[in-house]
Amino acid sequence: MARIIGIDLGTTNSGVAVMEKNGPVIVPNSLGDRLTPSVVGFSKSGEVLVGKKAKRGAVMNIGRTVFSIKRHMGTSHRVNIEGKVYTPQEISAMILQKLKQDSEDYFGEEITQAVITVPAYFTDAQRAATRDAGEIAGLTVRRIIDEPTAAAVAYGLDKQKDQKILVYDFGGGTFDVSILEYISGVFRVISIHGDTHLGGDDIDNLIVDHLVEQFKKEQNVDLTEDPIAMQRIKEAAEEAKIDLSEVNDTTILVEAVTMSDKGPLTLEASLTRAQLESMIADFVERTMKSTQEAMDDANLKPEDVDTILLVGGSTRIPLVQRRVKDLMGKNPHRDISPDEVVALGAAVQTLILSPLEGELEDTLAARYGKEAPVIIHMTPFNLGVGLQHDQMGVIIERNSTYPVEAKDIFTTTRDFQEAISFPIYEGQEPVASENTFLDLLRIEAITPAPRGVPRIEITFKLNSDRILEVKAEDLATGVQKSITIASTDTRLGEEDKARMRREAQMRAMQELRKRISDYTEAQTDELIARAEKLAKGMAEGAKSKELRQSVLNLKRKREEGELSAAQGEIEVLANLMAELEKGSPA
Ligand code: AMP
User: Fold this and answer.
1) Which of 23, 49, 134, 573 could be disulfide-bonded to 141 (CB atoms 3.0-4.6 Å)?
2) Is 33 an annotated catalytic residue?
3) Protein residue whose Cα sits closest to atom 16 of ligand 1
4) Helix or strand or coil: residue 66?
5) Integer Cα distance of 175 and 340 in angstroms
6) 147 noted as active-site residue
7) For the purposes of burial, counting CB atoms within 10 Å of the CB of 109, is it exposed (0-12), middle (13-18) or buried (19 or more)?
8) Which of 130, 159, 156 is nearest to 143 (CA)?
């Protein structure tokens, strides 16, 4: 059965996991890292870089590096890279494409299906945009699931007693807290709070400000004018912050950070955990206030919450752990790595779509059961249509569990009216236009009749991924019109998606070519040796002749000079070898 991957598509970092027989495991990327920075860079030569390379290259590619695209999903935001305009879906697709490619390289097989996680507060438009990004990257997105639910599933909480779970998620760029209720096999998100602009990056910036100020005092040099110096200091600040989660003091050293009349200047400073804690105390208190508000919204006291889960790299900070414990009166669970738990939960969720073949290991069966958990969510907003006098006609009420279907009947306001347009909104306001406009559904050819007589039935169907389908039907004639909703300017048309998919495939091809052109001398020697060995063992025929000729061509070309001149020959031989090795047993 085709392998399905679980993807945590994060604001700062993303991760991939798969379900193995003895539990979910993280899939390392091409560099062997368990997380991939969600950063996309466009080099001057037009190459697309994703992950650590893009993050590191940000200094050289100022204005051509995109961070935190997740914040813009489902909006009309556009990224302009030297005149070429990209939607947030396309940029996210580049990250997903890299995760897909790295997983394919790891498993040596094509991967076309994924479960992707999103924050619980994501709207329908944001979820639809995430699904589109997957499609552009060549992935069928089998499910979109909420991050806090994925974390709870990774801990196997769905196989335990009914309980209330608080998920405190403090990542690189965002903070959110969700309270879930788990009753009789079903999860519900009962309240959400947070700050989408508070994360580990802000902590790094505080340390940077402190270092820059100190440097100014000591050396009378303002480093803020120098982007390369600032980037290096930021990297050193993050490293120091991470160190201080383990040790009580650390030294920050950025050699030759800038030039002065007297030569290169080095930034050197020491930082203690106590100093860092006093710097970040306000941030941490803001997260506590949000947590308290989520509890108040859910009408809960700390003793009503059974389990606390920590998610996100910034929850490794000891002060954060202490404050969560103080507020909630009990220790949070943190035995699963907080920056991997969401991807692992997404992998567990793939079980529902593709049960593992053969018997499950006992440990797995005990923890996750033989079937994946049922997940039910509640809609965070009313969904409805704009009526006469700009009134909001609510069809699906806030806090409805979904999947759900609801209908209502409307009529005309003018005699012999032939068409009605229903603007569709999401939001809590009684005045329709004060809510978020999602799309317009127009039904024509209504039976001619005095106003108030035609009966137009509107059906809202919200599926398990919170994608909304709206249908209008003239009950007299059976004439129907339906649309799948996300806001018009954020939802991509099929044509756009097809074009973006083609472009993504082109990029994958270029990447492949680039990898081939990255062949080093040693790799070329190895390629030739492998080819010669294969040719020796092959029966005489057209293919063996082609292979020998190709080896010869490469050797000749190589003897003529630079390896770079032999890229064409390397490419031909590498492709031929890939074809022959695929067809022969390993
Ligand atoms: P995430 O978005 O969950 O990947 O979290 C990334 C954030 O966690 C970044 O700001 C990291 O600097 C931060 N982080 C990772 N490990 C640690 C650590 N040991 N101590 C403090 N912050 C950390």
Assistant:
1) 134
2) no
3) 313
4) strand
5) 16
6) yes
7) exposed
8) 130
Task: Write the pLDDT tens digit of every residue in 164-212.
Answer: 999 999 999 899 999 998 887 778 888 888 888 899 999 999 999 999 9
Given strand 436-443, what is the order of strands in its sheet?
392-396, 383-386, 420-426, 436-443
Residue 70 appears among annotated catalytic residues = yes
Which protein residue's CA is at the shortest distance from atom 21 of ligand 1?
Answer: 242
The confidence score (pLDDT) of residue 509 equals: 65
Question: What are phi and psi for residue 228, nearest 5 degrees?
Answer: -70, -45
**Candidates 90, 132, 169, 181; catalytic one:** 169
Candidates 470, 471, 481, 475; CA nearest to 412 is: 475
- Over residues 122-147, the mean pLDDT reads 89
pLDDT digits (tens, 9 = 90+) for 544-561: 899 999 999 888 887 776
Identify which has the larger pLDDT, 309 or 414: 309
| Number of the ligand 1 atom closest to the C-alpha atom of 313 | 8
313 lines ligand 1 (CB under 6 A): yes
79 C-alpha to center of ligand 1: Å?
26
Q: Higher model confidence: residue 547 or residue 366? A: 547
Of all protein residues, the one whose alpha carbon is nearest to atom 9 of ligand 1 is 172
pTM of the model: 0.71
**Per-residue tokens: 378:** 């509640």
Per the DSSP assignment, residues forming a β-bridge with 180 are: 165, 189
Q: Answer whether 380 contacts ligand 1 (Cβ < 6 A).
A: no
